[in-house]
Every structure is written in C-alpha cells, then in structure tokens.
Amino acid sequence: MRLLRVCVATMLCAAGIAAPQSTPPQDRPRIVRSIRYDHFTGIPVHDILRTFDEKGVKLKVETPFDQQVIDHAKAVLTEMLAGRGMPNARVEVTVNPIPPRSIEVTFTAINP
User: Fold this and answer.
1) What is the pLDDT of residues 34-59, one digit of tens each?
2) How many CB atoms lie within 10 A of CB 82?
3) Given phi > 0 = left and psi -120 to 50 = alpha, else beta, which region is 85?
4) Residue 48's closest CA among 61, 32, 37?
5) Radius of gyration of the chain (CA)
6) Listed residue (57, 73, 58, 60) closest to 108, CA to CA
7) Domain harbouring 34, CATH code
8) Is residue 40 situated within a structural domain?
9) Domain span holding position 76
C-alpha cells in the first residue's frame, strides 16, 4: 500500500499536480546533537577527538546516530584509558533522546 502511495505521489509531482512530499519523521534518522565525555580526568577532549580521527571513529555532532559508531567510540575510549594507566577502567554509554528526532550521547569513564 505504501508503495502505491509513493508511486501515485511521484506521478502527481511529475505532472505538476502536487508538491513533493518529505520523508515521514519516523523514517528519518536520529541526529546526534550533543556528545559529552564525563570523568575522563587527564584526557582533554581535543586528544579524544584527535584519536577518534586517527582510529576512524565517525562520531560527530550533527550526524545521524549509528550504534556501531558508538560501539567503536566506546572501544577506542576504553583503549585510551588503558594506555593512560587505567587498565581496569570501563566506559559506559548513555543515549538520551532530545525530541523530536535528536539525541545526546554521554560517555562516562568508570575507574574502579
């Protein structure tokens, strides 16, 4: 049924009868609006961002949310902590919604 609606809408647009429709909000990806790094004592944000670039982590503000990218960032941050003398540290990730289609990602370093 959805395909039929899309085809009809496309034909109407091509004929100049109707304006093109935008993608429905539920089909749009969530956008990362904020990234926070909590308790990363001794690791400046610019070092984190440089390491992300070096390791190919594609996490940036104003980009679509991708869980695989978040998981990659978490692994790189854990590796950074271990390299700074905190081998037992772990990283927790919190994803908070910001209505209507945005999110805030928070990485928290936990050093036992």
Assistant:
1) 999 999 998 999 999 999 999 999 99
2) 12
3) left
4) 37
5) 20
6) 73
7) 3.10.20.310
8) yes
9) 25-110
Residue 79 domain flag: yes
Domain count, the chain: 1
Residue 63 and residue 58: Cα distance in Å, rounded?
Answer: 9
Report helix, strand or coil for 95.
strand
Task: Return the higher-pLDDT residue of 51 and 10.
Answer: 51
**27-31, 36-40, 70-74: least confident range:** 27-31
Helices (H), the chain: 2-14, 45-55, 67-83
d(CA 90, CA 6): 47
Q: In what order do the strands lie in the sheet with 90-98?
A: 31-38, 102-110, 90-98
Percent of the chain with pLDDT over 70: 76
Angle at 97 between CA 92 and CA 99, to 5 degrees: 165
DSSP class of residue 54 equals H
Query: What are the tokens at 85?
Result: 């003398």
CA atoms within 13 A on the CB side of 73: 25
